[in-house]
Write a structure and sequence with these properties.
eleven-stranded mixed beta sheet, 31% helix, alpha+beta, 7 helices, 260 residues, 2 domains, Aminopeptidase, two-stranded antiparallel ribbon
Length: 260
């Protein structure tokens, strides 16, 4: 599967390499990996995935061993077109419990916020960014310190740019962008609950789009379908490229508050 300038493999590498800055990634083959986090127990940071379709039996077994060693519940993300991989997982007792939608910006159309001051790069305070991220996605500050450490470490990475939108003296919305060849991936789009539906996420995405355009990259993002923000991105000009099945052996999906 290809999408004009990029392939499925390119898109998947952008995502796994971004989250590989947050968790430990081990490559099981040239197209499969397992991600394990010592800091976060959600399935999202503890899952295996595939960059393309192929014979995945050995990779699945190796991933299951890694999950067991880390005391994590097995979880797999599989491009929907890779029916052979999903069939193997189904024979082992796995089932789909959610999907991830992979999108690319087509024509920008997000609403803009009024009175929002957007900062980026070194101008972003890592702890303020982490505070808004934690409140947006978790509703509390449980992950603020660990995320602040990640943001502090990554601020100096040339592949990463953090964006923050401040309103009335407080950071009300955040996101991060991550560069791989030809792509600018958008991640961690979060808005404080009392500032949602006011154009803050749209304003930050406008800024991300300007970065992508200035660097000659395609702007892409990936969102969990059950979080219910897919229509927000589509209305703002994104188009779905493909989806990934999220499969487990019946473990319930971790609750989290969507930040857009």
């Amino acid at each position: 599967m290809t999408f004009e300038l990029v392939s499925l493999r390119d898109l998947e590498l952008n995502e796994v390499n971004w989250w590989g800055l947050w968790a430990d990634v081990s490559w099981l083959s040239n197209y499969s990996y397992v991600m394990i986090s010592r800091d976060y127990d959600e399935y999202f940071f503890n899952r295996a995935g595939f960059l393309e379709c192929g014979d995945a039996r050995d990779a699945i077994s190796a991933a299951e061993q890694a999950f067991k060693a880390a005391a994590r519940s097995p979880c797999f993300m599989v491009p929907e077109e890779c029916r052979g991989i999903t069939q193997i997982l189904e024979t082992k007792g796995y089932g789909e419990f959610d999907k991830m939608s992979v999108m690319r910006l087509d024509e920008l159309g997000f609403r803009l916020a009024t009175g929002l001051n957007v900062t980026s790069g070194q101008a972003v305070d890592a702890r303020d960014w982490a505070t808004t991220f934690s409140l947006s996605f978790y509703g509390d500050l449980r992950v603020r310190n660990s995320v602040a450490g990640i943001a502090t470490r990554l601020k100096s990475e040339p592949s990463v740019t953090f964006l923050a939108g401040k309103k009335a003296g407080r950071v009300a919305g955040v996101l991060a962008v991550f560069r791989t060849p030809g792509l600018l991936g958008v991640y961690c789009v979060g808005t404080l609950e009392d500032h949602r539906r006011s154009g803050i996420a749209g304003s930050l995405l406008h800024q991300a789009s300007q970065i992508a355009s200035s660097e000659g990259r395609e702007l892409v993002l990936q969102t969990i379908v059950s979080d219910g923000v897919g229509n927000f991105y589509i209305a703002g000009g994104f188009k779905e490229l493909y989806s990934k099945l999220i499969m487990s052996k019946g473990a319930p999906r971790a609750d989290k508050n969507e930040g857009a």
